[in-house]
């Protein structure tokens, strides 16, 4: 299964500024978050990229894409009526092909020489089905991620056959319905923000978007429909996802990138100095009163 296309969603009301934020990459070069996301996508052989955005945001995204803008086309989601609807806006773009899907407010750092996207595409090609990247996720992070449960595939490291998909479950529901054998207590398989989806997802997306009982249908809703009809897997990527949309998300992402790059020693020195200065201020508190 060849994956030539990718869809990036960045149409939620709080997402339009995140991909334009500036960071410093592992080599010390200034780049926007969008450039880093596009580099991740292109690392796995993708040739065409569609970004789903809000009306009026195209110019800022074109500027943020820099010299990679030639690989991107834009589709608008007129109203913020849900994640599932946002992906459906790219239906004509993906046609009947499988596609890589990423969210526009996450960055990814691989723990190997192979990018996270390339790892995922390799597994999807091997199993010839939709595969979601997942990461072992602590219970306190449940409000931020879709969660899957499944059974491990024998002789396939980190691969699971998905049995349930729930968007941002409560801790009680997760404990009752979404435990995956083999994970540490209090940990669940949380979405990584990256999926390879076959054309089968389109019918599932259309079904949940048409479901009037769902206020803002999500991709998780569609994937739960998909897993009941077709083979659907999850893969524990060797890497880490960083959510730019949570408090201090941009700061934590930048620190993670810096500590994995050429300026690691410099950043560590600066952090030690910062902590020492802070400790000194706290230790001197009240002396000038």
TrEMBL record:
Keywords: Nucleotidyltransferase, Transferase. GO terms for biological process: UDP-alpha-D-glucose metabolic process. Gene3D superfamilies: Spore Coat Polysaccharide Biosynthesis Protein SpsA, Chain A (3.90.550.10). Residues 23-225 form the Nucleotidyl transferase domain. InterPro entries: GalU_uridylyltTrfase_bac/arc, NTP_transferase_dom, Nucleotide-diphossugar_trans. Signal peptide: none annotated. GO terms for molecular function: UTP:glucose-1-phosphate uridylyltransferase activity. It comes from the Bacteria. It is an enzyme of class 2 (transferase). Its EC number is 2.7.7.9. It catalyses: alpha-D-glucose 1-phosphate + UTP + H(+) = UDP-alpha-D-glucose + diphosphate. Pfam families: NTP_transferase. Belongs to the UDPGP type 2 family. This is UTP--glucose-1-phosphate uridylyltransferase. It comes from Stieleria maiorica. The gene is gtaB.
